[in-house]
Design goal:
disordered C terminus; YcaO domain-containing protein; alpha+beta; 7 helices; globular; five-stranded mixed β-sheet; Alpha-Beta Plaits
């Protein structure tokens, strides 16, 4: 059995930032006075520890670049400009044992959202590099709730790509290789990030949803592995990852499950690209390109639809 091996850290770090016109110096007092719903007891119990550290930052002396934070959706462009133009920030950092995930990241993000509401600011996830929607943190962990940094690049390379549409020209199946998709966020749960490359523009939605399904399956298996209390800090997994429509449904959460037409399980191949980055590609026995595979009949039909996160209003709909 061919395997891929990766290191599993004992501690992972999540960082969130809040940009505002004025950020007070007493962030601890402000957070304790600001309701964060079900996370209030968790926040109170972790404040002052590495699991929930608050710091005030100013642009003149910060070691990170606010311009690296981007809007994941066009409707967030105004908030992006606000974040970029701000001079004062609150930074929320959670350095927690891997066995404390995902709760540690959820508590830190709940704290960041509460601070953003208190100061009238804009919150961002510095791991994914994306702005956070101004909503309360849900008690249940759902990977689709902005944890993966999973957004599509501009379709057809912002108009620069002239590859034919395969629906009208069969040659268009492999007409380009513009798209490379990479997760940003799995590392805070102790997993390598995932990447799929050389994808043609018309197949970007299917590629994204394959990546989402693979991420959810790996995370489910990883937490099961951690629950056994392994002493080894390196993990070996089969390079052949078997996926089903249930993995894609689990990505969105059972309360807002995506129902796909019945389909057989499909398989992807994982490969090492770096110590904390794995490639996702067609199964070993597939004879063809990644685009032949994505355009073929092995991927569930529902994975060709663009679906927004169920945490975002309005309800997710197919594009």
């Amino acid at each position: 059995m061919a395997v891929v091996t990766f290191p599993v850290p004992s501690t992972t770090v999540s960082r969130f930032a809040v940009a505002a016109d004025h950020v007070p110096h007493d962030l601890v007092g402000l957070l304790l006075r600001t309701p964060a719903g079900l996370y209030d007891p968790h926040i109170a119990g972790r404040l002052g520890s590495p699991q929930l550290d608050l710091a005030r930052d100013e642009r003149a002396r910060m070691r990170w670049d606010p311009l690296g934070v981007r809007a994941a959706r066009p409707r967030e462009r105004h908030a992006e400009r606000t974040f970029h133009d701000s001079e004062q920030f609150a930074v929320v950092t959670a350095a927690a044992p891997i066995t404390d995930q995902p709760r540690a990241a959820q508590v830190a993000r709940a704290a960041a959202r509460a601070l953003a509401e208190a100061v009238g600011g804009v919150a961002a996830d510095l791991v994914t590099g994306h702005l956070l929607t101004p909503e309360s943190e849900r008690p249940r962990f759902v990977l689709a709730d902005q944890w993966l940094g999973d957004v599509l690049p501009p379709f057809r390379a912002n108009g620069r790509c002239t590859a034919a549409d395969p629906e009208h020209d069969p040659e268009g199946v492999n007409g380009c290789s513009c798209v490379r998709l990479r997760t940003r966020g799995l590392r805070r749960f102790g997993l390598p990030e995932l990447q799929i490359s050389d994808v043609a523009c018309p197949h970007d939605r299917a590629a994204l949803n394959v990546l989402r399904s693979a991420a959810r399956r790996l995370l489910t298996d990883h937490w099961s592995w951690l629950a056994t209390g392994p002493a080894d800090r390196r993990r070996a997994i089969d390079h052949a990852l078997h996926l089903t429509e249930a993995d894609f449904g689990d990505f969105w959460g059972s309360s807002r499950r995506v129902h796909l037409p019945p389909t057989s399980p499909f398989q992807v191949r994982l490969g090492p690209l770096a110590s904390r980055l794995l490639t996702v590609s067609p199964p070993e026995e597939f004879d063809g390109t990644v685009n032949d595979w994505l355009w073929g009949d092995q991927i569930p039909l529902g994975m060709y639809d663009v679906i927004d996160s169920p945490a975002d209003p309005p309800l997710p709909t197919a594009a």
